[in-house]
Amino acid sequence: MATRHAQARTATESADAAAGAGGDTARAALLFAAVFFFATLMMRGPVTSIGPVAEAIRATFGASYADYGILTAIPIAAFGFFSFFSPQIAEKLGLRRAVGAALAVLAAGALLRTAASLMAHWPAMLAATVFVGAGIALLNVYMTVVVKVNWPHKLGTMMGIYTGVIGLSGAVGGLTAAPFAEYFDTVAATMGFWAALSFSAAALWYGFSQVGDVLRAQRPAAGASARKVEREPLAALACKPMAWALTGVMGLQSLLIYTVSAWLPPYWASLGMSAQTTGVWLFVYLVSGLPASVFTARFMTLVKSDALAVTLLSAAYLAGLAGWIWGAEHAWAMLPGSVLAGASQGAMLSVAFLLMSKKSASDGQMLGISSLAQGVGYLGAGFGPVLFGALFEGFSSWMPAFAFVALVIVFWGVSGVLASLKKTID
Hints:
mainly alpha, MFS_Cyanate_Porter, MFS transporter, MFS, MFS_dom
C-alpha cells in the first residue's frame, strides 16, 4: 500500500513538474514572440514617417522637390545594396546576433537623423538615412528566416502576422509624423520618436532574444531548425528563372509601397489637405493592409491558385488607384480607394514572403533567395520615387506619374503568375 501511495505521489509530482515546465515554455514562447514583433515594428515607420512631413522637411533644410525625391529613394536603395551583405553577416555572427546588429545600426541612424534635423544639416540627414536603410535592409532579410526557423509548423499564420506588423509599423509612422512635428514645432520630434523606439527594440532583443534559441533546442525535432543556417550562393540562384520571378514579386511591391507612401501626401496636399489630414489618409492606406496580410495565406488557399490570387490583388490595387484619382473631384472615392489599394499592398508583401518560403527547399535557400530578391528588388524599387517625381515635374501633372504606378501593378501581377508556374526554385 505504501509503495502504491509513493508511486502515485511520484506520478503526481512529475505531472505537476511537467505542467510547470509547459507553463514556463509557453511564457518563454510568448516573450520571444513579443520581442520579435516589437523589433518588427521598427521596419517601416522610420521610412513612412517622412511623407506626411515632406513640406516641413523641405522648409527645415531648404530642400527642393528633387532633393526630397533623393531623400525618399535612399532607404529603398539601401535596402537593396545592404541586402547582398546580409548572408555573410549572418554566417559570421549567427542569425540572432545579426538581427541585434541590424537593430543597433538602425537605432544609430535614427539618432543621427534626429541630430541632423535639429542642426538643419542636409548632408548629415542623407548620411543618417543610409544607416536607417542599412539596418532595415538586414532586418528585411533576417526576419523572414527567423519566422521560418522558429515557427516552421505555423509558417502561414506567423508570416501573415509578421507582414501585418510591418504594415502596422508603416501606418504608425504615417499617422504620428505630422502630430509630433506640429506639437513640438520641429521635424526632429518625428525623427526622435523612432530613435527612441529603435533603441528600445535593440535593447530588448539583446536582452531576451536568446529565449528563441532555448525554445528551438527543446523541440523534439530541433536538429533541422536549430542547425547553422548556410545560404545558397547567389550566383547559383541567379541562374534560376524562378528566382528572378520571385525577385519581381518582391521588388515591384516594394517599389509600389515606397513610391506611393512618399508621393501620396504631396498629391493630397495639392488638393488642399492639411499635413495631419494627409497623415490620416496615409494611415488608412497602410493600416488596411494589416488584416489583408494576416489572412493572405488563407485567401491563397481559398482561391486554390497562386496565379489567380495575384491577378485578383492586381485588379483590386488598380481599382484603388482609380479611387484616388477620382477622389480629386469626388471625395467619397478616397476611402474605398485607400482601403482597396492598402489591402492589396499588404497582401502583396505576404504573397512575396509566402512564395519565397514555399518555393525554398531549405532554410539556407530561403536566406539566399531572400537576399537576392530583396537586394535586386529594392535596388530597382529605389528608382520608383525618383521616377514618379520626374514624371510629375516633367509633365506638370499627376496623371503620367499615376500611369507609371498602374504599369508597375500590372508587372507585379505578371511576375506573380510566373512565380506560380513551378513548385520549387530548382
